[in-house]
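User: I'm curious whether this sequence folds into something compact or stays loose and floppy. Could you predict its structure so I can see for myself?
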Amino acid sequence: MYKHTVSLLLAVSSLMIFFGGCSKSDMVKKEEPVVPVANVAGTVKTESASKKPAIQSSKDSIVSETVNPITNAGELKAALENIYFDFDAHVLSPQARETLAKNSEMIKNDSAINVRIEGNCDERGSDDYNLALGEKRAKAAMQYLMTLGISEKRLSVISYGKEKPVVAGHDEASWAKNRRDDFVITSK
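Assistant: Here's the prediction. I'll summarize afterward.
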């Protein structure tokens, strides 16, 4: 009897370790490249995320490790607007669609750039949940930009989940500003 119990416990724990250790998501942890960007005044500064990207995807390729400076990137970066989402949602609001339409016109005017869409969430929810939600938000914006005529090859998405808040508060006004997609200029 004791032998059978030990054998059963060993088999069950082996299965738990096997199935518990298998990853069910496509997480790619990679250092974000430092991107030289000319700001509006014309000087050059470097941008780098303080955190590592959590999820990064594109149907054709992952964001290039080397990024060339773009002459009008500062003006374009300043002109591209973020879009915001409701709590626990990745559906584009009418305001977000209007903002994406404006962004698409600016992106269409410069064929030398690519855009990385960064999905972000507020601090509520687990890390895994927010990474998945951030990716859904970025992909929703990407799909809409594609319907507006931007080539899929010029767009990529990444999710930072709750790792890159722009406001540190713990109230609805702060959370609303952190539920967003940022648009980052990269080159071809």
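Summary: The chain has one domain: 26-187. Confidence is low (pLDDT under 50) at residues 22-70.
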